[in-house]
Amino acid sequence: MTRLRRSRTHKAQRDVHRASRTRARTRDLDQIQLIDLDPKNRAKLEAQELDHEKPGLAQHYCVECAKYYETDSALRSHWKSKIHKRRCKTLKEPVYTIEESERAAGLGRDSKRAVTAVAETDVAVSQS
């Protein structure tokens, strides 16, 4: 008989608990695309006033990752990192919209309902 894996094995893993905290919640991709990447808002975020509560006095901010850094060198090394490049790549994809979710549920134009409705009108026109 083999050993069985216990369920709920992530009890003491630190990253699971930290990721679930609302205190450490990061901005979602659609928020960054719609709000932060707008040229006016981006300029405001990159040139913020001094804020003693934020890391680096809020002077070193990565807009794509929505994250503050302590120093300019830390921000520059972040720009070269794989994490930042991956985030930029995902931000180039279009935003997930309500219409896309409805199409996935079968309610959009690509669903079978729309095709049958068109087919019924074609039959009615051909009988006339």
TrEMBL record:
Gene Ontology CC annotations of this record: cytoplasm; nucleus
Region (Disordered): 1-25
Main subcellular localisation: cytoplasm
Domain of life: Eukaryota
Subcellular location: Cytoplasm; Nucleus
Record domain C2H2-type: where: 60-84
Composition bias type Basic residues, residue spans: 1-11
Record-stated family: Belongs to the ZNF593/BUD20 C2H2-type zinc-finger protein family.
Full protein name: C2H2-type domain-containing protein
Originating species: Multifurca ochricompacta
Phylogenetic classification of the source organism: Eukaryota, Fungi, Dikarya, Basidiomycota, Agaricomycotina
